[in-house]
Task: structure prediction
Amino acid sequence: MSGLRILVPVKRVIDYAVKPRVNRAQTGVETANVKHSMNPFDELSIEESVRIREKKAHHAHAPPVEEIVAFSAGVPKSQDIIRTAMAMGADRGIHVVVDEKDALEPLGVAKLLKKVVEQENSNLVILGKQAIDDDAGQTGQMLAGLLNWAQATQASKVSITDQTTVEVVQEVDGGVQTIRSKLPMVITTDLRLNEPRYASLPNIMKAKKKVLDKKSLADYGIEESGVRLKTVKVCEPPPRKGGVKVEDVDGMIGKLKELGAL
Result:
């Protein structure tokens, strides 16, 4: 094996600090004039890819990182987060321009990523375990299935021990477990994996000169997004009723009986 060719999918989402609001038509969440940024789990993926490259200097047996490619499929403004990824350390970017009305679902994204992996000859895909807008948490697993590659989900630590072996500590119900596999591989990242770096101004300026290829679905042999789900209506959850105070335990028991909870 000559080296790692890492593909990092990133997604443009409403900034995690913004409280989403349902639009007037109740067809979805309001996105106009709302701050957007890179999906937080994807920031972890970019950071980990760069750290793998940096760790090579201290691990003689680890393979070198030949290239880190940031990829996104979305509206024209998605190029902004690809530039951010390149400012964090990705070598180049690929942007498949997709209209907002044709937004891809997880299976469609996985099929597209499979084409990208094959075209870019990638041997390691690192992506967030989920996007904070739809919270599907499916794309990584679907991609691994389509590629017939090993996968490690919800990674909290990634170690490349030799030229072909990857060891991942992943979070599971009730604790963690360590798995080991051979490349090629799909890894999805979890919050405890690392703390993403800030893109410095010099690196932001350098990122403007890095290659960002604009593509279409047709360039990868995909004619349409294949949307299978239709959102009928989106509405706010009903407001919670206010609580009441009781003087003592007997009062609490009486109130629970009154509410039919006992």
Remarks:
- The chain has a mean pLDDT of 86.
- The chain is about 25% helix and 25% strand.
- Residues 40-55 form the longest helix (16 residues).
- Helices lie at 40-55, 79-88, 106-120, 139-147, 201-207, 249-258.
